[in-house]
Specification:
The chain is of the alpha/beta class. It has two domains: 1-68, no CATH class; 84-365, Aldolase class I (TIM Barrel, Alpha-Beta Barrel). It has helices at residues 34-40, 43-49, 51-59, 70-82, 117-133, 157-170, 188-194, 209-215, 225-237, 259-263, 268-271, 285-289, 291-306, 367-374, 381-384, 389-392, 397-402, 415-431; strands at residues 2-3, 7-11, 16-21, 26-31, 63-64, 87-92, 139-144, 174-181, 199-205, 241-248, 274-280, 310-313, 331-334, 339-341, 355-357, 363-365. Strands 12-11-10-9-8-7-6-13-14-15-16 form an eleven-stranded mixed sheet. Strands 2-3-4 form a three-stranded antiparallel sheet, covered by helices on one side. A two-stranded antiparallel sheet has the order 1-5. β2 (7-11) and β3 form a beta hairpin. α2 crosses α3.
């Protein structure tokens, strides 16, 4: 027997330590000399010295058989998760234009860009070809990105949704629709169209009302916060699932809990339809390193949970068992002009594309790029012995391929960062319990 290489032991007080195993995602609390027993004894010897602790470690996979290849187990989990053929995930960019100009947006917006009627037809052909060729598909996920995907809704999103619903219904395939949107352009006509559909949204706020309106305002200078909050509540009351992404910075984090005042009139039933997702604006370097910012983030997570909301954040890693759609084999994004991409978090310029859509509904792939991309995840030797590899997996495929020639951690985590990730996960597991 041997100790798992995915064990971490972290002090959580004068008398206690947390032993966490990232592969099983389980933990035990060590007290007294238990920590010393583990440091002093090998796995087999521990059975004789402290059989209760030995059995606890067996239970959380903190001790495994000598023949167990834990690296291979993680690789297999990654492959099984990312090659699931029971679904297909298609992203569409109806436009790269947007009704806002947020300072942190990574995209180069193209004013007036719009998917043409011909390209809509090519997309529909691609959907039909995909469903015909992949008989194992049980669920088709149609997602709209951009730019702002609610722009030109009747010309682009609506006919594609109608087409997918028709073809999937005829083949008994479930259809899920998702919009990553700023939420401002949502109106009653769109809500009526989506009312009977399995649809979800990710909608972003840039802090509470005062902070948000400094970043996201209309051309006439009026703020957008009130309308976006109203639309979030309308969706929740229609039993549509909403990820309310709160982009935090060192400037807005300390007042973010004020958002709760504007959601206070939602009943518990409708709050269950909203997940709060805290994400740091990556350009704000201070927000990453400032201890007061991190403490405020943890404080806000607790407050939102205590008010009945599900909460996630960048601290809760899940690149392996719940990986990004961009990591999946059965995923692509079709831009308004027919360029094809795998990742939605990079600028949509032609030199970044991984293929392009033809008039007959076929994607011509850059096969060399795709082969390198699909083998990039968890490929670094430094990742194989990292104690949180079963959570991180070496980062997503996009980050992995961009950093593939560097044998340092793709996400540049320090040992202190790893400890904090584990402690945050431990704390969140308690806060999230009913």
């Amino acid at each position: 027997m041997k100790y798992s290489k995915f064990n971490s032991i972290i002090s959580i007080g004068k008398k206690f330590s947390l032993l966490y195993n990232a592969l099983s995602d389980k933990y035990i609390i060590l007290r007294g000399k238990a920590n010393e027993d583990i440091e002093r004894c090998g796995a087999d010897e521990l059975r004789m010295e402290n059989n209760i602790l030995f059995e606890q470690l067996i239970d959380i996979q903190g001790i495994v058989g000598d023949s167990i290849d834990e690296t291979l187990i993680v690789k297999n989990i990654i492959e099984d998760t990312d090659s699931d053929n029971s679904f297909y995930h298609l992203h569409i960019n109806p436009t790269l234009d947007c009704n806002f100009r947020c300072w942190y947006c990574y995209e180069n917006h193209k004013i007036g860009s719009k998917m043409s009627p011909n390209m809509v037809n090519y997309v529909q052909k691609y959907i039909e070809n995909t469903i015909e060729q992949r008989q194992s598909i049980k669920t088709f996920i149609l997602a709209f990105f951009g730019g702002e995907p609610l722009m030109y809704f009747n010309d682009v999103a609506k006919p594609i949704i109608d087409y997918v619903c028709t073809i999937c219904k005829s083949r008994n395939i479930d259809i899920q629709t998702h919009f990553t949107s700023n939420g401002y352009l949502l109106n009653e006509d769109i809500l009526d169209f989506l009312r009977d559909k399995d649809v979800s949204f990710q909608i972003t706020l840039d802090g509470c009302k005062d902070e948000h309106n400094k970043t996201r305002f209309n051309r006439n200078g009026t703020g957008s916060y009130d309308r976006i909050i109203s639309n979030v509540k309308k969706l929740a009351q229609l039993n549509k699932y909403v990820v309310l992404r709160i982009n935090y910075t060192s400037a807005n984090i300390f007042n973010i809990s004020n958002i709760l005042n504007d959601l206070a009139d939602l009943s518990e039933e409708y709050r269950n339809n909203i997940t709060i997702d805290f994400q740091r604006v990556w350009q704000d370097v201070e927000a990453k390193s400032n201890s007061d910012v991190n403490k405020s983030l943890d404080h806000n997570i607790r407050i939102f949970i205590n008010h009945g909301f599900k909460v996630t954040s960048h601290k809760n890693l899940s690149h392996v068992s719940d990986s990004c759609y961009g990591d999946k084999h059965n995923h692509c994004l079709i831009n308004y002009n027919g360029d094809v991409f795998n990742c939605t978090a990079r600028d949509f310029v032609t030199e970044n594309r991984s293929g392009y859509l033809t008039a007959d509904g076929t994607i011509i792939w850059d096969n060399d790029f795709m082969a390198r991309r699909m083998t990039s995840k968890y490929s670094k030797p430094v990742c194989h012995n990292c104690r949180i590899a079963p959570l991180c997996g070496g980062g997503c495929r996009q980050k992995a391929i961009e950093d593939i020639d560097n044998n340092q951690c793709t996400l540049y985590y320090s040992e202190k960062d790893i400890d904090q990730i584990i402690l945050s996960r431990f704390e969140y597991s308690f806060l999230s319990k009913d």
